[in-house]
Each structure stands twice: as structure tokens, then as C-alpha cells.
């Protein structure tokens, strides 16, 4: 295998890119970013300094992944998803001077294994999106999403649970904690949250 980097992409020689990864047109990968094996980085993607991306991650066109974000293995990021990393953003201080790199507090965000974020969703910093969770297109995530959680809306609310295959999970008869998939037979124990 080899790494494929389009001629128009800007990739720092201080970044780490895993074998089999493809980086497409006009993408920018900053210094100290780490991208795992077999990833697809779409057109116009921006990956900030220090971002950590696992193996087999697919990032669609025009996504901004800012410092403080970690994407675990197998994550899907739809087109135009935007991450944030500052809960109190300002361009200037009260005295009118520009804010410097030392004038803000980084809030970390983690997207866990297998999670999928729909197109145009916005992820407020400081949240964790659980394993195999699914975020609907156009959603605004303002709080943590549980493993297998299906969320959508502005602000996003928990609407159910999904299987790793993408189908909605349903309660197993005679059980309030076991959820299963009618399509593939997957089962898991879920303690339901009230959102």
C-alpha cells in the first residue's frame, strides 16, 4: 500500500499519515496531526494541528477538524461538518487587543469508534459522541451522545438507538434493557436515557 496525496493538497511534513490513506484536492493537513491507516480525506478538508484520527476513517468534502478533536477508528464524517474547540470565542480582549494563542481554553471533543456524523452537522466542543452513534444531517450537538444513540435536531435530542449496521434498534420482547436489530440480529444492553 501507499499514501495518496493530491498535488493540490497541503500536507505538513510534520504530520503522520498512515499507509493506504488518500488525501484529496485542496485539503490541508497541519503539523503534528496524526491520521491512521486506510483513511479517506475528501476535497477541501482542513485538519488542524494536533488532531488525532484513527484507522479507516472517512471524512467527506469541506469538513473542518480543529485542534482538540479526536476521531477514533471507523468514524464517518459527512460533508461540511464543523467542529469547534472554544466555548467562549472572541477575536479581541476587552481592551481591544487581539487574542493570542494563550488567551483561550481548549475544549476537547471525542468521536468514538464507528460513529457517523451527518452532513452539515455542527459539533460544539467538549462533547463525546459514543460508539456507533448516528447524528442526523444539519444537527447541532450541544451535549454528549450515548453509544448507539440516534440524535438529530437543533439542538440535537436522543430519538432512539441504532445498530452498527445502521438500522434502528428495537426492544427485545420481555426485556427493557436488551435492544436488537431486526436486519442483522445484533443485540446489546442499553440503559435508556431520557433526553
Q: How many helix segments?
A: 0
Q: Mind telling me the C-alpha Rg?
A: 18 Å
Q: Would you list the SSEs in sequence order as H and E?
A: EEEEEEEEEEEEEEEEEEEEEEEEE
Given the helix and strand composition, which structural class is it?
mainly beta
- Proportion of residues in extended strands: 25-35%
Q: Kindly report the average pLDDT value.
A: 95
Please give the alpha-carbon distance between the first and last residues: 45 Å
Largest sheet: 9 strands, mixed
> How would the global form be characterised?
globular
Task: Please mark out the parts with pLDDT under 50 across 5 or more consecutive residues, or reply none.
Answer: none
Per DSSP E runs of 2 or more residues, the count of β-strands stands at 25
Strand order of the largest sheet: 1-4-7-10-13-16-19-21-22
What percentage of residues falls in helices of 4 or more residues?
under 10%
Amino acid at each position: 500500500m501507499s499514501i495518496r496525496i493530491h498535488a493540490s493538497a497541503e500536507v505538513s511534513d510534520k504530520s503522520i499519515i498512515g499507509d493506504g490513506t488518500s488525501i484529496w484536492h485542496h485539503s490541508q493537513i497541519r503539523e503534528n496531526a496524526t491520521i491512521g491507516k486506510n483513511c479517506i480525506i475528501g476535497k477541501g478538508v482542513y485538519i488542524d494541528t494536533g488532531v488525532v484520527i484513527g484507522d479507516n476513517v472517512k471524512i467527506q468534502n469541506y469538513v473542518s477538524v480543529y485542534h482538540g478533536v479526536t476521531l477514533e477508528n471507523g468514524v464517518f464524517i459527512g460533508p461540511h461538518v464543523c467542529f469547534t474547540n472554544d466555548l467562549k470565542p472572541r477575536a479581541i480582549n476587552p481592551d481591544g487587543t487581539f487574542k493570542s494563542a494563550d488567551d483561550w481554553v481548549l475544549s476537547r471533543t471525542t468521536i468514538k469508534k464507528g460513529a457517523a456524523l451527518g452532513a452539515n452537522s455542527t459539533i460544539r466542543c467538549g462533547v463525546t459522541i459514543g460508539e456507533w452513534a448516528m447524528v442526523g444531517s444539519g444537527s447541532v450537538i450541544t451535549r454528549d451522545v450515548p453509544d448507539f444513540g440516534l440524535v438529530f435536531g437543533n439542538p440535537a435530542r436522543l430519538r432512539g438507538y441504532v445498530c452498527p449496521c445502521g438500522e434502528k434498534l428495537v426492544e427485545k420482547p420481555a426485556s427493557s434493557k436488551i435492544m436488537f436489530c431486526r436486519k442483522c440480529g445484533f443485540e446489546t444492553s442499553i440503559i435508556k436515557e431520557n433526553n
